[in-house]
């Protein structure tokens, strides 16, 4: 029987696990979270369920059906709180996956390792947030963090909040804030109307297949109107102000390439601000597996969702930012192929069509809402770019200029940008872009900030401890997280 290991239990991973089980593969599904559902279906913990969780999510029935099917299936082993911290390639097969199981701050965590026949990587994405003066003040949140607190804890990040950045994700963030009692004073989309028209309007008939997404966006627009939330184009939060925490923000008009326009600034009193400029794929395991990346830095896959690494498939946000429907379609195809199915199988026909539709949607999001080249104009020389190591924009520029270096590795080592506790997850891409435009002709050492051989936090004692054989690790209850017995 084919052994398929699925890493990530968001929409893509859940769909992959179900598809692989349908073809009779033995499936193990791992997620570092203590619940299934990933970012899209983040919900209250089982110990504190909502009376009507369903009305708070899009596609909740799909989630319930996927999770119930897998949880009641003896051929699918689900391990929650399972953080994959390394992936080692092997001469044959996709390699060995190393996992630490248990709460991040827990004791007695167990190490497991798996050497399956096929791996489906469905590790999703991080928030991308560009730096600006004051973004390191308490009270400045990424859109995803505000969303996670609202959906997973019913916590509001503030009473008077503005949402700023680029992309359709700003809308669910504002909706979730309102749902937990925040007053959203405005949503500021950096791109201007012509960019949105150029991205969204060509070949409108292609959008027909994505009508569900349109209905979802329509729902957010109605919510905005009902709560009188202004939605402004071509504007951005260009500075956050406060002493111990954010007290106000400056919003300014920006040009089509995101350069702030002097004289358009307006100060707004807030106690929180949520910023999102899209998403960065979580690529460390894919990089460790040896998967080739596209020019846009997503995992390159063929029509079976197979990467360039033998036996390694990829699905969801790590192959392109396209939302939940694309993640579900790609996950289904990846799981099916990983379990030995072929793309021409009748059972996949509708899914393959759906994938094409939603891939088009992803390209439109990038064209309409992508980050524009003028964003560094929002920085001053004392703006912190790497928050973990407190490296300023000025220091990065001075180092690049005084050393004349065009090596990302050398400049990172000289400044420590991207070497702190988040290992460049927050600032890595911004550091790369800032240095690439300083180092005329671009960076030349071929290094990027997605390579993290140890991809999760693990204590040295745990690293040194003996590995529990995966076969002897079983769950006492599918509804409990990571309660392993030996
Ligand atoms: C913070 C955040 C919030 C979002 N909220 C929304 C929203 O409200 N609405 C919306 O339309 N879209 C939202 N998105 C976009 C959303 O990610 C996608 O639409 C969809 O969830 C993608 O599905 P996925 O399966 O590819 O990834 P995800 O849903 O992100 O699932 C990936 C899973 O992989 C797990 N994982 C990652 N690395 C490891 C590892 N090393 N070991 C073990 N497990 C691992 C993660 O815990 C996660 O559960 C959000 C994205 C982010 C980053």
TrEMBL record:
InterPro entries to which the protein is assigned, alphabetical: Ala_DH/PNT_CS2, BFD-like_2Fe2S-bd_dom, BFD-like_2Fe2S-bd_dom_sf, FAD/NAD-bd_sf, FAD/NAD-binding_dom, Metab_Enz_Cyan_OpOx_G3PDH, Opine_Oxase_asu/HCN_bsu
Single GO molecular function: oxidoreductase activity
Matching Pfam families: Fer2_BFD (PF04324), Pyr_redox_2 (PF07992)
UniProt KW Oxidoreductase keyword: yes
Domain spans labelled BFD-like [2Fe-2S]-binding: 384-436
Domain of life: Bacteria
Keywords noted in UniProt: Oxidoreductase
Domain FAD/NAD(P)-binding as annotated: residue spans: 3-329
Protein name according to UniProt: FAD-dependent oxidoreductase
Taxonomic lineage of the native organism: Bacteria, Bacillati, Actinomycetota, Actinomycetes, Micrococcales
């Amino acid at each position: 029987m084919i052994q398929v290991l699925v890493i990530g239990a968001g929409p893509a991973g859940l769909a992959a696990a179900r598809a692989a089980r349908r073809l009779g593969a033995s499936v193990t599904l791992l997620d570092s979270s203590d619940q299934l559902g990933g970012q899209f279906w983040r919900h209250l913990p089982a110990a504190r369920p909502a009376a009507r969780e369903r009305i708070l999510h899009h596609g909740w029935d799909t989630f319930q059906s996927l999770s119930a099917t897998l949880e009641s299936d003896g051929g699918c082993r689900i391990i929650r709180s399972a953080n994959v911290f390394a992936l080692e390639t092997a001469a044959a097969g996709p390699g060995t996956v190393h996992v630490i199981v248990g709460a991040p701050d827990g004791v007695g965590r167990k190490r497991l390792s798996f050497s399956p026949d096929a791996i489906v990587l469905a590790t999703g994405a991080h928030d991308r947030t560009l730096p600006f003066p004051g973004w390191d003040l308490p009270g400045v949140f990424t859109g995803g963090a505000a969303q996670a607190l609202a959906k997973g804890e019913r916590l509001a990040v503030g009473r008077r909040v503005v949402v700023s950045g680029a992309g359709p994700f700003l809308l669910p963030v504002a909706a979730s804030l309102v749902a937990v009692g925040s007053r959203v004073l405005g949503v500021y989309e950096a791109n201007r109307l012509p960019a949105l028209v150029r991205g969204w309007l060509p070949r409108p008939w292609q959008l027909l297949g994505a009508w569900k997404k349109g209905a979802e966006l329509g729902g957010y627009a109605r919510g905005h109107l009902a709560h009188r939330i202004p939605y402004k184009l071509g504007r951005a939060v260009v500075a956050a102000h406060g002493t111990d925490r954010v007290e106000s923000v400056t919003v300014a008009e920006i040009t089509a390439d995101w350069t702030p326009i002097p004289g358009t600034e307006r100060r707004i009193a807030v106690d929180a601000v949520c910023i999102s400029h899209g998403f960065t794929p979580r690529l460390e395991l894919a990089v460790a597996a040896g998967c080739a990346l596209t020019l846009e830095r997503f995992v390159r896959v063929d029509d079976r969702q197979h990467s360039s690494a033998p036996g390694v498939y990829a699905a969801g946000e790590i192959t392109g930012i396209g939302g939940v429907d694309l993640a579900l379609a790609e996950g289904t195809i990846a799981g099916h192929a990983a379990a030995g199915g072929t793309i021409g199988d009748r059972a996949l026909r509708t899914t393959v069509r759906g994938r094409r539709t939603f891939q088009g949607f992803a390209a439109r999001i990038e064209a309409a809402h992508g980050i524009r080249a003028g964003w560094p104009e929002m920085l001053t020389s004392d703006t912190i770019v790497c928050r973990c190591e407190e490296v300023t924009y000025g220091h990065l520029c001075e180092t690049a200029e005084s050393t004349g270096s065009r090596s990302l590795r050398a400049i990172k080592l000289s400044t420590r940008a991207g070497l702190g506790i988040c290992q460049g997850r927050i600032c890595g891409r911004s550091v790369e872009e800032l240095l690439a435009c300083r180092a005329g002709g671009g960076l030349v050492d071929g290094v990027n900030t997605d390579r993290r051989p140890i991809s999760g936090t693990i204590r040295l004692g745990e690293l040194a401890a003996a590995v529990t054989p995966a076969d002897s690790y079983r769950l006492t209850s599918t509804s409990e997280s990571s309660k392993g017995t030996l």
